[in-house]
Amino acid sequence: MTSVNLGKQHPDAYKNLIALSAQADAAVEASGLGPLVGDLVKIRISQLNGCAFCLRMHTRDALAKGETSDRVAVLAAWWESQYFSPQERAALALAEQVTELPVPDTRTWDDGSLTDEQVSAIGWLAIVMNAWNRVAITSHYPVAP
Questions:
Q1: How many angstroms separate the CA atoms of 61 and 79, rounded?
Q2: Which pLDDT score is estimated for 101?
Q3: Per residue in 22-34, pLDDT tens?
Q4: CA Rg, the chain, in Å?
Q5: DSSP 3-state assignment of 50?
Q6: Among candidate residues 138, 125, 135, the one with its CA nearest the CA of residue 42
Q7: Minimal CA–CA distance to 32: which of 92, 98, 117, 94?
Q8: How far is Cα 68 from Cα 128, in angstroms, rounded to an integer?
Q9: Secondary structure (H, E, C), 72-109
Q10: What's this model's pTM, rounded to 2 decimal places?
Q11: DSSP single-letter state for residue 140
């Protein structure tokens, strides 16, 4: 397949995705989830989708906001570690469920750790992040040292 930069080819659609992304980020913030939960969700979804561009960007963002390298290092196996709070674990499980429909996994997010507002906010963030991963991967965004 020919490499086509989707954002340059259809800039209005790209601008709308930027606006939707900003709304999803605002919803996560307004829901009372900590500022790093959104970054963790973005990193985890990018891991699942194999989006190197987004992984680098969101990992750098999270570290700049004070996330620890230990938590980022074990994020791919978050359920095996004790680094994450029940609320963070619920958000990550929900994000995985949205990303990998259907998920026949035993990891559950519906343990009461998230309010309805937080479930909706993380759901929208996951939907938007999956869209961004697909834009970056399809457009072959460069990832170089």
A1: 23
A2: 75
A3: 999 999 999 999 8
A4: 15
A5: coil
A6: 125
A7: 117
A8: 24
A9: HHHHHHHHHCCCCCHHHHHHHHHHHHHHCCCCCCCCCC
A10: 0.86
A11: T
